[in-house]
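Appendix C reproduces, verbatim, an entry submitted by the partner laboratory led by Prof. M.T., so that reviewers can inspect both the input and the predicted structure.
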Amino acid sequence: MKSISELQDEIIEEFSELTDWEERFQVLIELGEELPPYPEDKKKDEFLVPGCQSRVWIAPEIQDGKLIFYADSDTSLTKGLIAILVKVFSGHKPSDIAEASLDFLETIGLKKFLSISRRNGLHNMVQILLDYAKKVNPS
């Protein structure tokens, strides 16, 4: 399995080839479509990400000492945003997730294309993932 930084580098490379928002939006939609199916029994309020413009669910699971994230959203763009995070962080040790750099989100330029409310939602999604990692592996 690739490291978190290798996965981040792949996403940076993929987005560096995109020249405008429409291309980025299309890639986000495609990434969202690649998310594994979200367990219907986890579509509960306890897994909803607060402060998101859309409904976003993130459910963690520990498998062999690694944190697996299941995620879904009711909008294509938001589903793509959470798909990036799941792609990078799911399947790694909680300590690696908690210590990972988040600079790749700045590097791929999403912040300048997202509205303030979507940026806040992305921040909340990241925070949820980090909180799960810290709960499993308190420092």
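Residues 63 and 91 are 8 Å apart (CA to CA). Additional entries are available on request from the coordinating office.
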